[in-house]
Amino acid sequence: MGPELMYYLPVLGVLGLVVMVAKAMWVSKQDAGDANMQELAGYIAKGASAFLKAEWRVLGVFAVIAAVLLAWSAELDAVARHTDWVIAVAFLIGAFFSAFAGWIGMNIATKANVRTTQAARTGLSQGLKVSFNGGTVMGLGVAGLAVLGISSLFIIFFKMYVTDGMVNGESMMQCLEVLAGFSLGAESIALFARVGGGIYTKAADVGADLVGKVEAGIPEDDPRNPATVADNVGDNVGDVAGMGADLFGSYVATILSTMVLGREVVSADSFGGMAPILLPILIAGLGIVFSIIGTFFVRISKDTDSVMAALNKGNIGSILLTAIASYFVIGWMLPETMSFQRGEVVREIARINVFWAIILGLVVGFLMSYITEYYTAMGRKPVLSIVKKSGTGHATNVIGGLAVGMESTFLPILVLAAGIFGSFQLAGLYGVAIAAAGMMATTAMQLAIDAFGPIADNAGGIAEMSGLPKEVRERTDILDATGNTTAATGKGFAIASAALTALALFAAYVGLAGITAIDIYKADVLAMLFVGGMIPFLFSSMAISAVGKAAMDMVREVRRQFKEIPGIMEGKAKPEYEKCVAISTQASIREMILPGALALLSPVIVGFAFGAEALGGLLAGITVSGVLMGIFQNNAGGAWDNAKKSFEKGVEIDGQMYYKHKSDKPSPPHQAAVTGDTVGDPFKDTSGPSMNILIKLTSIVALIIAPHLNEGAGHGTGTPVPVMQNMPAGSSDASLPEAPSKDHVSAPLDLGHRF
Predict the structure, then answer these.
(1) Span 15-25, pLDDT tens digits
(2) How far, in Å, CA of 336 to CA of 217, rounded?
(3) Do the strands 345-350 and 337-342 form a parallel or antiparallel pair, or are they unpaired?
(4) Which helix (H) or strand (E) holds 348?
(5) 335: closest CA among 63, 730, 750, 646?
(6) Are 330 and 351 in contact (CB under 8 A)?
(7) Can you give the pTM of this predicted structure?
(8) HSE-up of 188 (CA within 13 Å, CB side)?
(9) pLDDT > 90 fraction of the chain, expressed in percent and rounded
(10) CA torsion angle 134 139 144 150 (round to 10)
(11) For the chain, which has fewer Cβ within 10 Å, the N-terminal or C-terminal residue?
């Protein structure tokens, strides 16, 4: 098989979508419970749908305007042939696919929640089966759409643009430059979906907690609380639709960055020299297959079995299968040695080192998830330390959570640094990119585990609002607590992939911008490095402030209803749920614009005002600061949340039993834990998870505008290599440059100068 391998890659995406449909049909056929349960689930589904429609109206206008600007700028650059107006079409397709991926997740989640509640009446194992299958629908939908979209568009653009037959020539660069529009569209929608959904869910959650739980002393999901439906809607629009769009964008950006760097790898393979470009798509597609197999490992037989252990079994299974398959795929596709060429500098890459880079990426992803689980899981030392500090008041709880979040950056950064250094030593910048592709290969499984959480959370809320027996709520609480941890690990996984992907995108940007180094001794570069480091802080401030404003409106509305609606506390009158839903919807749509504009415009302004090298400094600052902020906020928020849940479950510290769930009113330590949770809510569900999108989006925008910053971009990136028809691996050709000797490899290798 030769270059025609590209025509088979979309089949793997279609396979994921076919299994997704089968899983969705199975979930839809499950018992949805009694009329009351279905009515409550209907409120949640209606509210989630209303939010998405309102958000899509705004984003539709944005997408059209952005597409017009992209087409216009591409036409200005038509003489240089760096890009084409078709990039606008790719942008719109990427935006649509990203929004559609989020809708798939939200649609099934609003069906799976009530069915999980009903299944939990039978037993914990059945509740896990329904909720996890609901999450699997989202995971396979995101991965299937990503592989189908990027592989199909690559085929189309390859046919349109690669007319000179050169793998690393101008026409291939133009093909990938246009394909970058697909990634830009996906990440743009992901940012707004993540920020908007995060503002929605946390405004409702904070309002429901502060007035309902603390002031009125009623349970979190009590039907008397007017904000409880909005809170459950928020779980779907933020943690499901937002997360789906988020990881769709991450998945696409990772594949794209590896393809761009693969263009600069000279490979005498049987795929016309295209093996380094096609490899990341194939690994992503195989990851879908192994994620499907991994779902069959997620089983428990009785209520005492560990749900987290079952999920880990499925995750580890899919990772191991991907690792084993990668060895054979790389041996089949790549020649024994290749060379990465940029300008006059070449680096030899051994085939086996590409495999070890993928293994390193898989290990980094697993370790990031494991470390995040340690810092956020109930019963672990970090969460127990916050529980203990809650005994002395609100201030010490907040101090404890901040300390845990800051400490939690230590090990992940060391793991990331080791992964970056190790993969670079193995295979240069292509090694870093393929390591990220390896990490993202099992995205379908990672996202299934992540989406399981909000489904379980909703299921618990419906059980509480429906007044089901306590054993049902206890089972949903087990699923919910596990889901809270898996949500945190999913965010840790996302920020790790963002760091590796951003470095690969950064390297691709350097090549397309036609610069050889980022010199921080230059005043403008150093200045923009500091500006880039500041942007994640400003972005977080905007997002958290938006939650605060919306939460204040929510608190006032809940207090008003408690005061003005007679019989609401006695359960004789139904709250006006729709008014709280409207507050969250309006606030999230209004407040998501400014943070999104900051992410999109900052690289454009800096790039055209100060030049390509200064923009490189900005990207470096955003990446380092954003990764640290993302880890800190995600882990601090997750730890605060599970500290609160520890009180609701009942926890013993130093021989003293702290608050149990069935007390009439929260104890002072539990009230302190609720305060910490409300502080952590916008951390872990609004600003924190948005950091990885901010990092990648700014890098992709820079990649898009790179050719406009330097007219010489893309030239001198090595001797163009023709697309060879079915050349046997390892064979030679007169047009192929001689394989560089080790003497040609400069050492040590530094980013942006020696590759």
Answers:
(1) 999 999 999 99
(2) 68
(3) antiparallel
(4) strand 345-350
(5) 730
(6) yes
(7) 0.83
(8) 29
(9) 29
(10) 150
(11) N
Would you call 340 helix, strand, or coil by DSSP? Answer: strand
Q: State the total domains in the chain.
A: 1
Q: Under DSSP, is residue 521 helix (H, G, I), strand (E, B) or coil?
A: coil
The secondary structure element, H or E, covering residue 619 is helix 612-649
Partner residues linked to 653 by β-bridges? 656
4 within a domain of the structure (yes/no): no
Predicted local distance difference test score (pLDDT) of residue 750: 38
Written as six digits, the tokens of 250 are 């991450």
Q: How far is it, in rounded angstroms, from Cα 452 to Cα 746?
A: 48
Question: d(Cα 436, Cα 282) in Å, to the nearest integer?
Answer: 14
Of 101, 448, 47, which is closest to residue 241 (Cα–Cα)?
Answer: 101
User: Which amino acid, one-letter code, is at 452?
Assistant: F
- State the angle between helix axes of 668-682 and 170-207 in degrees (0 to 180), rounded to the nearest 10: 150
pLDDT confidence bin for 632, thresholds 50/70/90 = very high
Label each residue of 373-395 as H, E or C.
HHHHCCCCHHHHHHHHHHCCCHH
What mean pLDDT value characterizes the chain? 83
User: Averaged over 494-507, what is the pLDDT?
Assistant: 80
Is there a domain that residue 223 lies in? yes
Helix (H) or strand (E) holding 631: helix 612-649
HSE value, Cβ hemisphere, 13 Å, CA-based, for 192? 27
DSSP 685-738: IIIHHHHHHHHHHHHHHHHHHHHHH-TTTTTTSS---B--SSPPTT---TTSPP
In a domain, 733, yes or no: no
Phi, psi of 373, deg, nearest 5: -60, -40
Is the residue at 311 inside a domain? yes
Q: What is the C-alpha to C-alpha distance for residues 368 and 412, in angstroms, rounded to an integer? A: 6
**Residue whose token pair is 């419970």:** 33
Secondary element (H or E) of residue 516: none
* Measured CA angle at 708 (ends 262, 88), to 5 deg: 75
Asked if residues 584 and 552 have their Cβ atoms less than 8 Å apart, the reply is no
Residue 456: both structure tokens together:
């379980």
Q: Give the separation between CA 481 and CA 485, rounded to whole angstroms.
A: 7
Q: What is the pLDDT of residue 2?
A: 65
3-class secondary structure, 742:
helix
Residue 27's domain spans which residues?
10-717
Per-residue model confidence (pLDDT) at position 664: 53
End-to-end, the C-alpha distance of the chain in Å comes to 30
Identify whether the C-beta of residue 491 lies closer than 8 Å to the C-beta of residue 630: yes
d(CA 88, CA 178): 8
